[in-house]
Amino acid sequence: MTNVCRSIMVKISAVCCLLLLTACSTPDVSLYAKNEPKFELQTFFSGSLTAHGILKNRSGEVTRYFNATLEGSWDNGVGTLAEVFVFDDGEVQERTWIMTPDDQGRYSATANDVVGTGDIKIAGNSLFMNYVLQVPYDGDLLEVNVDDRMYMVKEGVVINESVMKKFGVEVGYLSIVIEKQLAD
User: Fold this and answer.
1) 18 in any annotated domain
2) Which of 25, 35, 42, 45 is nearest to 123 (CA)?
3) Is there a contact between 111 and 96 (Cβ–Cβ < 8 Å)?
4) Number of domains in the chain
């Protein structure tokens, strides 16, 4: 094989590797920077909200559904979001998020069943958050990595899609509609 052929083969291999790597990457929240309506964290997660959703296993089969109430409040820029989930089998789960701003205007989040801190990124109508969640499973707690993607589709309505992974393998999917309740 000549040097020219080797050079061409190396370039083709490099392009193929680059295409494979970019095919596996996920979209960045910045892609949605120009989308409307703007997702204002303190505005949307303030007051009463309701949520309705389904949980799917890794095969895509719906295994559970739920309804939830959420109550958000803010004090000196720090948000508290109390969530109560009621599942179709009667199980009740509660989670309280604390959303804290940093000096760059970004937010981090902690919760009673979250390991460490979640990183919140917002652009345009979208909010992305990654965190490790402790999920009750077979009498124990299982830690799963959650990739939350929220999209404000109109004022007061957000669609949330989540992918849950364990050891890098997708094990579950969550789809939720969150609606802000109007004050009486």
Assistant:
1) no
2) 35
3) yes
4) 1
